[in-house]
Amino acid sequence: MVVVAEAIRTLSASHREILNETVLRRRTVNEAADVLGLPVETVKSRVYYALRALRIALEERGVAT
C-alpha cells in the first residue's frame, strides 16, 4: 500500500484528482464530470492517462501490473 501511495504522489494534480473522484469515491465518469465541472470526454481522457501514468510509476517501483 505504501508503494501505491508513493506512486500516486508522483502523478500530476489533475491525474490525482480524477483518480480520487472515479476510483476512490467510486463516481461514474458522468458523476465526476458534474462534480469537477469538466466535459465527460475530458474526464475519460484524464482517467485513461492517469491510469497509464500510475501503471508506469508502479512498474518503476517494481510492482508488476
Automatic annotation (TrEMBL):
Note the SUPFAM superfamilies from the entry. Sigma3 and sigma4 domains of RNA polymerase sigma factors
Q: Which GO terms describe its molecular function?
A: DNA-binding transcription factor activity
The GO annotation for biological process reads: DNA-templated transcription initiation
Higher taxonomy: Bacteria, Bacillati, Actinomycetota, Actinomycetes, Streptosporangiales
Q: Provide the protein name.
A: RNA polymerase sigma-70 region 4 domain-containing protein
InterPro entries referenced in this protein's UniProt entry, alphabetically: RNA_pol_sigma70_r4, RNA_pol_sigma_r3/r4-like, WH-like_DNA-bd_sf
Q: Which positions, given as ranges, span the membrane?
A: none
Q: Which Pfam families does the UniProt record give?
A: Sigma70_r4 (PF04545)
Top-level division of the source organism's lineage? Bacteria
User: Which Gene3D superfamilies would you find in this protein's record?
Assistant: Winged helix-like DNA-binding domain superfamily/Winged helix DNA-binding domain
Where would I find the RNA polymerase sigma-70 region domain in this sequence?
7-55
